[in-house]
Design a protein that fits this description.
Helix content is 30%, strand content 25%. By secondary structure, the protein is of the alpha/beta class. The chain has one domain (2-140): 3-Layer(aba) Sandwich (Rossmann fold), CATH 3.40.50. Helix 1 (12-25) crosses helix 2 (36-48).
Length: 145
C-alpha cells in the first residue's frame, strides 16, 4: 500500500480539485474525507473549478447510504470512508487518521502549510510508518518530482 503526503499546500480545496482532475484523467476512483465544512466547500468548488470540464462527484453524508444510480460516480466526498462505494484512492483533508484507511489501495494525505496542520501531518506520518506495510512518499506542493 502506498501513502503519499502532499505538504506545503496553500489551499486544500483548490489543491484537491487539481488532484481529483488528475485522478479522473487516470480513470481512478477517489473518496475524499475531511471536516464537514471543508467537504461542503470542495463540493461547490468541483462544480466551478474548471469552466471547460466537469468533475462528476457525489457528496455522501454519514449514514445516508449509497444511491444505486450513483454508485459508478468516480469521486465521493464522504464523512465516513467506510461508506465509500470503492476502495481505490482515499484523499484525507483532515487532521486525523481516517478510520478504514487500510482498506484502500492508495492514500493521499494533503497537509496545509500552517503549523497546526504540519504537526498533525507529522503525527500521521509516524503512525503510518508504524503500520509496517506502508510505502511512504512525500511530495512538496509546487515542486515537481
Amino acid at each position: 500500500m502506498s501513502v503519499e503526503f502532499h505538504s506545503g499546500v496553500a489551499d486544500k480545496v483548490a489543491y484537491c480539485c487539481r488532484l481529483i482532475r488528475k485522478s479522473q484523467a487516470a480513470q481512478a476512483r477517489v473518496a475524499v474525507c475531511g471536516r464537514h465544512d471543508l467537504l461542503d466547500r470542495l463540493d461547490v468548488a468541483l462544480w466551478t473549478f474548471d469552466a471547460l470540464s466537469f468533475l462528476p462527484h457525489v457528496r455522501l453524508r454519514h449514514g445516508a447510504g449509497v444511491p444505486a444510480a450513483l454508485v459508478r460516480t468516480p469521486v465521493w466526498l464522504v464523512d465516513d470512508a467506510t461508506e465509500a462505494p470503492h476502495r481505490e484512492v482515499l484523499v484525507n483533508l483532515g487532521p486525523d487518521m481516517v478510520p478504514g484507511w487500510e482498506t484502500f489501495t492508495r492514500v493521499v494525505e494533503v497537509v496545509q502549510a500552517d503549523d497546526a496542520d504540519r504537526l498533525s501531518g507529522r503525527e500521521r506520518w509516524r503512525l503510518y510508518g508504524q503500520a509496517g506495510t506502508v510505502e511512504l512518499k512525500h511530495h512538496v506542493a509546487g515542486v515537481e518530482a
